[in-house]
């Protein structure tokens, strides 16, 4: 079992567009969306838009059909499969929603590669309408992070994952993301971790302003092909370092045995 945890953002990292915009645009609701956007938080607006879709006769099947043809780069699935075959623990942290993400991943046949999906709840209610709720209930209390949107601080989720894996030994993390919401988690990574921001996207631009704030090693990527190359290179690098480490421990044991018997 590899000691590597890989955390993927979803929109513009696994899929090549924002799934929220994809659904709204493909179903012809862009104008209403743009009109309402200045009046409410993104996550609340998505719930509202699902109500609008429902009231205009758009069904869950219509939404699923649009999600099934979301654009993604052909090398992303092979990259995910290879990382999983290496024994890495794959997780998702996304400000999209559970319904969109699970519908897409199941359709692509890659849902089971991920041990965990952290995202905004999304479910079909008794009227057949999709409800989208905040991951963090900001009406109850703020999560307190000023870098992140009110409904989700990805940094807090990374802290929680780091706490839970610290009991499993010396695990290392690779984080892939594109958006401004992926900047906060990049600041939480440790020296031995890796940050993979998408080049010339918001997370990359924020990191470039003061790269020394990120303790992890930074490796950019531009598209699915480069994502695959860089990710597999890092997995290999970690795996070789683990082997060297194990050999050092083994030879150290041997030395101790020799010195005891001498
Ligand atoms: C200027 C501006 N206004 C609103 C938003 C909100 N937004 C756009 S797409 C998306 C889902 C991201 O999912 P994932 O975390 O999987 O990439 C969210 C929350 C934004 N990014 N930028
Ligand atoms: Mg994203």
UniProtKB/TrEMBL annotation:
Residues forming the catalytic site: 9, 11
InterPro entries in the cross-refs: HAD-like_sf, HAD_hydro_PyrdxlP_Pase-like, HAD_sf, Pase_PHOSPHO-typ
Binding site for substrate: 20, 95
Cofactor field: Mg(2+)
Pfam families: Put_Phosphatase
UniProt KW keywords: Hydrolase, Magnesium, Metal-binding
Claim: Hydrolase is one of the keywords in the record: yes
Molecular function as annotated in GO: metal ion binding; phosphatase activity
Binding site for Mg(2+): 9, 11, 178
Listed name of the protein: Inorganic pyrophosphatase 2 isoform C
Organism: Glycine soja
């Amino acid at each position: 079992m590899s000691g590597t945890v890989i955390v993927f953002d979803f929109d513009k990292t696994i899929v090549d567009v924002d799934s929220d915009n994809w659904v709204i645009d493909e179903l012809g609701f862009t104008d209403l969306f743009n009109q309402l956007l200045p009046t409410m938080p993104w996550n609340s607006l998505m719930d509202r838009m699902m109500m609008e879709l429902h009231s205009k006769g758009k069904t869950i099947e219509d939404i699923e059909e649009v999600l099934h043809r979301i654009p993604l780069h052909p090398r992303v699935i092979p990259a995910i499969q290879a990382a999983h075959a290496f024994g890495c623990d794959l997780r998702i942290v996304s400000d999209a929603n559970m319904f969109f993400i699970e519908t897409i991943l199941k359709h692509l046949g890659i849902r089971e590669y991920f041990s965990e999906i952290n995202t905004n709840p999304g479910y079909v209610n008794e009227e057949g309408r999709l409800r989208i709720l905040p991951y963090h209930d900001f009406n109850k209390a703020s999560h307190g992070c000023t870098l992140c949107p009110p409904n989700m601080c990805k940094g807090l989720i990374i802290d929680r994952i780091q706490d839970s894996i610290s009991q499993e030994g010396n695990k290392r993390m690779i984080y892939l993301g594109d958006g401004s919401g992926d900047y906060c988690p990049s600041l939480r990574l440790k020296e031995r971790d890796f940050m993979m921001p998408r080049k010339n996207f918001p997370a990359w631009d924020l990191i470039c302003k003061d790269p020394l704030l990120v303790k992890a090693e930074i490796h950019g990527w531009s598209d699915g092909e480069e994502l695959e190359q860089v990710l597999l290179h890092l997995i290999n690098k970690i795996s070789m370092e683990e082997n060297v480490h194990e050999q050092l421990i083994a030879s150290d044991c041997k030395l101790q045995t020799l010195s005891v018997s001498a």
